[in-house]
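To whoever is on call:

I kicked off a structure prediction for a single chain this morning and the downstream step that reads the tokens threw a length-mismatch warning. I double-checked the sequence; it's 139 residues and nothing unusual in it as far as I can see. Pasting both halves so you can look.
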Amino acid sequence: MKQRHSYCRIVCHLVCSTKNREAFLESEEECVALLQFMAHKARELDCYVEEGGGWHDHVHLLLQLRATIRLSELYGQMKGFSATMWRRRFPDKPFKWEDGVYVKSVDPDQCDGLREYIRNQWRRHDDRLLLPHLERTDL
């Protein structure tokens, strides 16, 4: 039987907001901890977080998906796992995600600017150097 090979590279920009856009994340270090929980779950699901960054009330992720996973399953599991791990690490500090997300597929060969934008979220928000088309305030 002839062996067949497939190539699949699906990349998307995902933005998840805290419940009611409350400023749960008090520092960049807390944001990094939350992103690490999300990246851990993505790896368990055979997906990869290429870049992550955030602010007090939301996080941005550049995700590489495997072809056989539903996007809603991926972000649902990432949000659920990260909220659970947050509550274990910071039991006196409540945390919840907003129900919805913003997600957009991106050309993997044309997202260097997006990577830089996501990577520097904390600084960009501090300096008010935001790109409105990448900041979803309606979530």
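Update from on-call: the warning came from a stale cache, not from the record. Cleared it. Sanity check on the structure: The domain at 10-134 is CATH 3.30.70.1290 (Alpha-Beta Plaits).
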